[in-house]
Structure formats: C-alpha cells, structure tokens
Amino acid sequence: MNKIRLSISIFVLFCTTVLSANAQDVKGDAKAGEKKIALCLGCHGINGYQASFPEIYKVPKISGQGAKYVVSALTAYKKGDRKHPTMGGIALGLSDQDIADLAAYYEVLGKVDSGPVPAKAVAGNAIAAELVKKGACVSCHGENFSKPIDPSFPKIAGQHADYLFVALKSYKSQGNSTWGRNHPVMGGVAKQFSNADMKELANYIGSLPGELQTVQPNRFR
Questions:
Q1: 7 is a domain residue
Q2: Are 211 and 64 in contact (CB under 8 A)?
Q3: 82-109: pLDDT as tens digits
Q4: DSSP letter string over 170-214?
Q5: What is the C-alpha to C-alpha distance for residues 119 and 143, in angstroms, rounded to an integer?
Q6: pLDDT tens figures, 107-132
Q7: Could you tell me if 73 and 151 are in contact, meaning their C-beta atoms sit under 8 angstroms apart?
Q8: Measured between alpha carbons, how far is 15 from 17 in angstroms, rounded to an integer?
Q9: What's the rounded Cα separation, in Å, for the pair 63 and 148?
Q10: Are 204 and 96 a contacting pair, CB within 8 Å?
Q11: What is the DSSP letter of 81?
Q12: pTM for the whole thing?
C-alpha cells in the first residue's frame, strides 16, 4: 500500500512539474494578449482600485511586470497553489496560450514611460534594513527589488504597500480553502515575520522607485 501511495505521489508531482514547465515554455504574443484583457481591466486597469477580499487593499500594479512571473502567478492560481476566488476563477478559464499572451502584453505595457531605476535601492530605516537582511530579499528580487535574479520572480519595488502586506500574509496562510499561497521559499520567509514586521517591510519596498505601473485604457481616463 505504501508503495502504491508513493507511486501516486511521484506521478502527481511529475504531472504538476510538467504542467508548470509547459506553461512557461509557451511563447506569448503581446498583440494577441491585448485582445484578451477584458477581464483584467476591471481591476488592474483602474488607478487605485481596491479589492475587498480577504481585506481591503489596492490590486497590484502589473504593467511592466516580468512576463515569466505573470505566467507563474496565473498558473499557480489555475492549479490552486494560490487561492483566491476571483483570480482562481479567471485563471481556470485561461489556456496556457492565453496566459502567455497576457503576460507578454503586460510586460511591455507602459515600459516606454518608465524612468530609470537605480542599480541599488536606498537603504530604509534601521528596522526595515534589518528585516530585508533577515528575509534575504535581495537574493531573489535583486539589489533594487526591480531586477530579480530569475525572471519567474516578481519585480516588487514601487508595488502598492498594502498589496505587498497582504501578499506576504497570504504566504503564511495554510489550510484555508479560499485564501493563501503555497510556496516553500516565500512561506518560510514570511513565517519569520510578525504582521508589524511585514507592514514595515511592505512600506519600505513600496516606497522605492520601480518599473511597475497601472496603465489605464483611454476609456477609463
């Protein structure tokens, strides 16, 4: 029986790995992605738009975000590794090609308008500096938090602080059927911090200059 369970576990892990790899390998088309953004605009195309679940916070800026990270995030919502009723429902309706096209579109959207980002972020206050060191944040997100060492990691400099706070808390949420994120590295990092720590960290990173934007379609301006 144990051998059967082990075989099933290995098979499930193999299928999950293949699904993730396939999603990352599909080539995205930004022009095709522009025709598929209708469901995205209602939240990510309005400056200051706020979500209300599981608490009130601004939805993340995704224009200028790395395409491979957007693919990774949407795939995680589709698989259920990230739990969120709205995003999960939207992601389930997307094919791997849809996801790749949307990611390609948002990576280039607004890129021309983004100004230069310093090679290294200015240091925050002593508390923020200690938290960044404790979380080893630059080891994945880069010295300026806008040039991650792997394109499947997010740019986070200049992201809305309240969103960053909620995102960090979501990595600590386990066993919840509607909310939380399963990520072994970020889960381990987030568990080191209290809510006060995470808010301090989010406020610091959110205050930094970055490449992320909310680009509103003309009809919303």
A1: no
A2: yes
A3: 999 999 999 999 999 999 999 999 999 9
A4: HHH--S-SSSEE--HHHHHHHTT--HHHHHHHHHHHHTS--S-B-
A5: 7
A6: 999 776 657 899 999 999 999 999 99
A7: no
A8: 5
A9: 16
A10: no
A11: S
A12: 0.87
